[in-house]
Amino acid sequence: MVKTYGYGFPRLGKQREFKTLIESYWSGKLTETELKSGIAKLNEKREEIYKKYVDVFPQGEMTFYDNLFDASLIFGFYKAETLDDYFALCRGKNALEMTKWLNTNYHYLVPDFEGKEKNFSVSWNKHEGIKENAYLIGPFTFLKLSKNLPEGKFATLLKSLADKYAKYFKLNGFTSVHLDEPAFVMELSDEEMEAIKNAYSVFEDIDTKINLFTYYDSVDNLQFVFDLPVSGVGVDLVHDRGENLSQLESIEPKGKTLFAGIVDGRNVWRADLFEKANLIKKLSEKFDIVVTNAAPLFHLPVSLKGATLPEELVAKVAFAEEKLKELKLIAEILEGNEKEAENWIEGINRAFGVRKNVKSRVENLTEADFEKAVPYAERIKLQQEILKLPLFPTTTIGSFPQTQEVRRVRLLNRKGQLADEDYKTFIKGEIAKAIKIQEELGVDVFVHGEFERSDMVEFFAEKLEGIATTGNGWVISYGTRSYRPPIIFGDVERTEPMTVEEIAFAQSLTDKPVKGMLTGPVTIIAWSYCREDIPVSGVAYQIGLAIRDEITDYEQAGIKIVQIDEAAFREKAPIKKRNWDEYFDWAVKSFRVCHAKSKPETQIHSHMCYSEFGKIIEYILAMDFDVISIEASRSKGDIIEAFERVNFDRQIGLGVWDIHSPYVPSVDEMKPIVGRALKVISKDNFWVNPDCGLKTRRWEESIPAIRNIVKLSYTLREEA
Ligand code: GLN
Ligand code: ZN
How many angstroms separate the alpha carbon of residue 628 from the centre of ligand 1? Predict the structure, then answer.
């Protein structure tokens, strides 16, 4: 009988118990003992779910914040004597930097070698009492995802780290471990492979069996992994473009177990279980096989139980719990027990959300739909005639503080306790306040504040046909922060204006231009579960057309500037660079569909809240916006290097205030960031703004910080 294995099951809990527990501890409502027993209970419930469906699962996956961070502590890279020390490194003033985990929207705490002599040592035993399948992130992934490694030291560090892993295994007397090594799917250099081989050799003479898991893409040299001193290899047979599967044909298993990842851990669609079972049957002719999920399950909401979503959709999707069930059903099929599997997949191919008009609109797109008729150099003149902006114009990125009050009122409206009309009146009141504040501060380009939006993707998902939102379908993005990814299940269509009322209202209150505020196709797709029955490019163009229509309505309402946020543009890029052209081709085109047909005098902005543009600057430029605002404060303007290489003839707004922290920077602190950039970018092309939206900030910080930004701009104008 084929064995089943599940891993990465969400720690959040069906009712977001994880969030409640940790945040209660933070606010002093729970003691450390209460927190620890609460988390232990939550973990027991979690393991109950595993036990219901699969034969084996890892031990020790639970964490108070992040598993890569836990590995940092286990191996002495950071030190935390107490739980409060632990959380101090996760959040607050001295927190470690967070970054996205490979190509996902989960953020981990980045180990940073900057300025410190870092030695590894076994410093914390997280796995006390655990003997089997102890869960750990592997040494290669740990180092590969760290930053500021001393030059030329990778191999030595990896060797030293792997030695400590071996020591840790011994200390605990593990019979087996689960090592997550997703970084194995990156494009590895020969030196890196040599370093891995060398470091992993320490596992040759230990008693612990190692099961090494790769996921999110294919491994370029799978035989290399099978040749390492491990007992089992986990491969992703869903997100591998067929590349793992084709390698398996010629792999020599050498007695190693193949953990075949065939149930998708990243998307919600139910699998064709019979097709999967056939594949397993075929692979078992050669391999000792265990059936498992492809990618950890924490990218999915916990369970369909207790989640609400449209009836027709329920029969098509599976969340984390149901993915485990699919593993079980595959095993049952292989034993000749097909009944339940047949029922389970009955609805998967039923058509739902078909909109012929949308389809044909995409099919009929021609070159002119992607290409602006007037080049940037002329557009900017037309725009400036209307906007008459000063040098170093100031603006903000969109959202203003989402106060308790705003969230409370939105919730009341959602629960049906506040009529839509009253809710609208409330929102308009907030917009009016925001406009008044911007007038007083002397900002040049205004925003309406996004008070009506819970989330920049969910808001549009609720407005668009073909995208469903879920009740209670929460997923962790970092720490205790969770969001509900919508599900793009059908053809996406805008049936009526989505944001025009609020933006036009804001514009009616002021003579300053108010930016229309939209979320771009790539970001909507990246932070949703996307349908797979048509190519993703088609979905992106459908969303692009909806945005195009919204911009047309803006123009009619007298809006002169439109910002299309593409916060996930970089994140959505494939892990392997060789697949980048294919991705950026549709990503860039989907942005151009949004604005190619807008008037040349309508100024198009985009915003991306990060700064690693080095490798993607050419693609960014191809988006053909007029202005882009980016993060610059944390890197102190380093990003400008990327702009030196290309002829960046657009306007650029530098983020001079790190909005992730409540700290209000002074003019003198912000000024050097601009000074540095002015060497590369002409003063005529320069905007000043915060790094990102102010949703998570308070007015008490926002007002003084914006005041300083405006002052900075005045100083720059005087000096220009
Ligand atoms: N306009 C959005 C906001 O200000 C942008 C958020 C983002 O880029 N993450 O909130
Ligand atoms: Zn941002």
Answer: 13
DSSP notation for 473-506: --EEEETTEEE---EEEEEEE--S-SSHHHHHHH
Angle subtended at Cα 32 by Cα 70 and Cα 58, rounded to the nearest 5 degrees: 40
Ligand 1 centre to CA of 569 (Å) is 13
Closest residue (by CA) to atom 3 of ligand 1?
A: 693
CATH code of domain 3-10+57-344: 3.20.20.210
Tens digit of each residue's pLDDT (9 = 90 or more) over 612-655: 787 899 999 999 999 999 988 877 666 777 777 788 889 999 89
660 is an active site residue: yes
Q: Which residue owns the Cα nearest ligand 1 atom 1?
A: 398
Q: How far apart are CA 619 and CA 575, in angstroms?
A: 16
- C-alpha atoms less than 13 angstroms from C-alpha of 462 in its C-beta half-sphere: 14
Q: Which whole number is the average pLDDT over 163-174?
A: 98
Q: Name the closest ligand to CA 517.
A: 1
Q: How far apart, in whole angstroms, are the C-alpha atoms of residue 339 and residue 358?
A: 38
Which ligand has the nearest atom to the CA of 566?
1
- CA distances for 167 relative to 120, 123, 161, angstroms: 11, 11, 10
Q: Across residues 557-566, what is the average pLDDT?
A: 98
Among 547, 626, 717, 685, residue whose Cα is nearest residue 383:
626
From 607, 631, 694, 696, give the residue whose CB has the most ligand 1 atoms within 8 Å, as the site to mutate: 607
Residues 498-508 pLDDT 10s: 999 999 999 99
Mean model confidence pLDDT for the chain: 96
**Is the pTM for the entire model greater than 0.90?**
yes
- Closest C-alpha residue for ligand 1 atom 4: 693
List 291's β-bridge partners, or say none: 4, 260
Q: Which two tokens stand for residue 587?
A: 């990503």
Contact residues of ligand 1, CB 6 A cut-off: 397-399, 450, 456, 517, 565, 567, 607, 609, 692-693, 695
Nearest CA, atom 5, ligand 1: 693
Half-sphere exposure of 655 (CA within 13 A, CB side): 26
User: Which of 374, 427, 370, 369 lies closest to 402 in space, CA to CA?
Assistant: 427
- Ligand 1 mean position to 565 CA, how many Å? 7
How does strand 603-608 pair with strand 627-630? parallel
For the chain, which residues make up each domain, given as ranges? 3-10+57-344
**What distance in angstroms lies between residue 702's CA and the mean position of ligand 2's atoms?**
15
Residue owning the nearest CA to atom 7 of ligand 1: 567
Task: Tell me which residue has tokens 């490194």.
Answer: 89
Ligand 1: which atom is nearest the Cα of residue 563?
1
DSSP assignment string, 367-432: GGGTS-SS-HHHHHHHHHHHH---SS-BB--SB----HHHHHHHHHHHTTSS-HHHHHHHHHHHHH
Percent of the chain with pLDDT over 90: 90
CA distance linking residue 229 with residue 210, whole number of Å = 8
What's the Cα-to-Cα distance from 171 to each of 138, 163, 347, rounded to whole Å? 17, 12, 50
Nearest to 263 by CA among 310, 199, 331, 210: 331
Higher-scoring residue by pLDDT: 139, 662:
139
527: Cβ contacts below 8 Å, ≥ 6 apart = 105, 457, 483, 485, 486, 568
| Cα of 691 from ligand 2 centre, angstroms | 7
List strand residue ranges (DSSP E) for 453-585, in order: 465-468, 475-478, 481-483, 487-493, 515-519, 529-530, 561-565
